[in-house]
Amino acid sequence: MISESDTRSVHPDYKYNAEKIRAHFPIFRQQQNNKPLVYLDNAATTQKPQSVIDSIVHFYSNECSNIHRGVHFLSERATASYEKSRSGIRRYIRASSENEIVFVRGATEGINLVAQTYGRINVDAGDEILLSGMEHHSNIVPWQLLCEEKGARLRVVPITEAGEFNFEAFKELLSEKTRLVSVTHVSNVLGTVNPVREIIRFAHSRSVPVLIDGAQAAPHLPVDVSSLDCDFYALSGHKMYGPTGIGILYGKEPLLDSMPPYQGGGDMVRSVTFEKTSYQKLPHKFEAGTPNISGAIGMGVAADFLESVGIKNIFSHEQHLMAYAIRGLQKIDGLRIIGEAKEKSSALSFVMEGIHPHDIATILDHEGIAVRAGHHCAQPVMDFYRIPATARISFGLYNTIEDIDACMRAVLKVKEVFQ
User: Fold this and answer.
1) Coil, helix or strand for 112?
2) Does residue 147 carry a catalytic annotation?
3) Predicted confidence (pLDDT) per residue in 268-277, tens digit
């Protein structure tokens, strides 16, 4: 992570134009409590650029039809737009084939798909699944359900007080009983960027496959699934400036090919009789029923938008914001940042002595600043730090230094109110 000094003086050649990018997002034309909207809840969901909104309107206005089944022109156009998005997302995460890109409702469904297909045929009684101590509930509960069904065991790699993945403990916990490692790329609470490349390499040296929860990584830093060599990678469209209710599961083609269907229904079948059903080839084998067509199209446009800005530019910009925010928060007496990992991205959580995070978020809301307060669907992290909740600010590509300054002023106002 870059130095926690004023990023403008550290990087005089810093030319990222957040205000120009912000103009693409119509939601910022409004005010909150007669104040300009400062949106710092991007880890929960991101705002949508006009191009994404327009793509959804265009589909329903000009192409609305079901895909894959029809021979009429509307169906053919809708199918082409849908599959074009699959191709764009493949490029965005550097997968080698469209067959490896499965449309799902989001990262949560992607993880559940792997648990209920790969997990069911590869995990037996006495086997183990390895997670980290900083996982979102979406990367805990599906594995608990599988372990309960199979009589397997969930093992947890502890985190350090700084909020970092304990790699030495990981090496000790990975054993001949381990059937899968599933870890987050970036923590939605701590902002920790996990050493996923090293995790994957070590797990593969023991012939153990790895799933990466990339929901908090894909909008913020470069993702190359082929280079990482992960076996599965799940992400959500709404975290990367696309619509809600859409995401993708990446899986290596041989693995996906070996897995049974997740759901049964129309479009995922090749032939059906009452005696036997044969299934479509990848990736359609895992896409039963009418999908979220407009959502998939919008997600593809969102990926195009991110590429037009440049993911490396976004990462650099958000690192500037993170450094600036940390420097400001550290100056506030009675405020404690939760998690001080050396590698952080996008999310920053804190608590204030004697003040509940919900009260912090409420006062900030009155100042026109949207942040998140609660356990962030990561209760084990709260238990580790012995706190009930945190206030969390999380950055997006449209946030500015001025947004952070406004947030800092509001946090100081919180102190004034409670003093």
Assistant:
1) helix
2) no
3) 999 999 999 9
